[in-house]
Specification:
Layout lengths: L1 E4 L7 H10 L3 E6 L5 H6 L3 E4 L5 H8 L4 E4 L10 H17 L5 E5 L14 H11 L5 E7 L1 E2 L6 H8 L2 E3 L8 E4 L1 H13 L5 E6 L2 E3 L1 H11 L7 E3 L2 H10 L4 H16 L4 H5 L10 H13 L2
Parallel strand pairs: 1-2, 1-4, 2-3, 4-5, 5-6, 6-10, 7-9, 8-12
Antiparallel strand pairs: 9-11
Length: 296
């Protein structure tokens, strides 16, 4: 089987590529970074160096493949990340049209079922919808939750202000957490055990209330009883700008927080909760968080 892996050598794409190569598959990894070529080839994969905004490049790369792992990368240097997301989504769709690819595993997200109103997840909902319209395509939409790595943003907040918070967390709903290693495991399994039809796979490792998250992370760095503060949308937005995010990302993340706060973002998860959660839990993350805290 010939596989296309997008996402260069990111936290999910790298282990997926390694796993597929170890299983004896023909793997091509797409990266926009020429400097990644030797590293990709060192894994035993082929490197396709080019931009996801170059539809001709994608069409040529996808042409003879059998299956693809698709994701839309984050790029904090972009002035309009939302526009970039939809452009990449449309380019993927165009490249699939002229290819032999019959199986797609898409890195989507909880909240994609909303289609609109979930900030950076809206484009993933759009891509899901468009992939559903391709009649002969088998597609598995992986919907992980809030990444553990997103919690690193609280390191400086806890260190300098003694609090953690965002524009959600003032309800009884727990926040669903996912580790990228677990996502990679699920993605690998989906790609190696090819499926028929179109399906959704919710992915999670842990479920904790934000106040519990703040307390556990605070305790791990010697800040006992760190409180969780539910910020206003305005305060969350200004805080993100102050932390260096541009307006595009700040607006998208405020909207995502609103979707979490309303209960809409995780609604499908609670209705279709996975039978088995990943083994990595919040307590396991505390060592990683403590290292980030030390450098904050």
């Amino acid at each position: 089987m010939k596989y296309i892996i997008t996402g260069s050598l990111g936290n999910i794409s790298r282990p997926v590529a390694k796993n597929l190569v170890a299983a004896g598959q023909d793997v091509t990894v797409i990266s926009s970074n020429q400097g990644k070529q030797s590293e990709i080839e060192g894994l035993g994969a082929k490197a396709a160096i080019g931009s996801l905004t170059d539809v001709a490049f994608l069409k040529e790369t996808f042409k003879d493949a059998d299956a693809a792992y698709l994701m839309i990368p984050a790029d904090f240097s972009l002035a309009d990340y939302g526009k970039f997301q939809y452009e990449v989504a449309d380019n993927y769709l165009e490249a699939l049209k002229g290819s032999n690819i019959k199986h797609v595993v898409l890195l989507s997200s909880l909240g994609a079922h909303m289609r609109k109103g979930a900030g950076p997840i809206d484009a993933l909902g759009y891509l899901e919808e468009k992939l559903l319209e391709i009649p002969d395509l088998n597609a598995n939409f992986l919907r992980p939750s809030y990444f553990f790595s997103n919690l690193f943003t609280f390191a400086g907040m806890i260190k300098h202000a003694g609090i953690a918070g965002n524009n959600f967390g003032d309800t009884d709903e727990k926040l669903v957490l996912t580790h990228t290693d677990h996502i990679a495991e699920v993605a690998t399994d989906a790609l190696l055990n090819l499926f028929t039809g179109k399906m959704i796979t919710n992915i999670a490792n842990d479920e904790r209330h934000p106040s519990e998250i703040a307390a556990i992370l605070g305790k791990a760095v010697g800040k006992e009883n760190t409180p969780w503060i539910a910020f206003s949308d305005e305060d969350a937005y200004n805080g993100m700008l102050g932390a260096g995010l541009n307006e595009s990302f700040a607006k998208l993340y405020v909207e995502m927080g609103q979707a979490i706060r309303s209960g809409q973002m995780q609604a499908d998860y609670w209705q279709n909760r996975p039978e088995k959660l990943g083994h990595y839990k919040l307590e396991d993350f505390t060592n990683e968080f403590a290292a980030a805290y030390a450098g904050a």
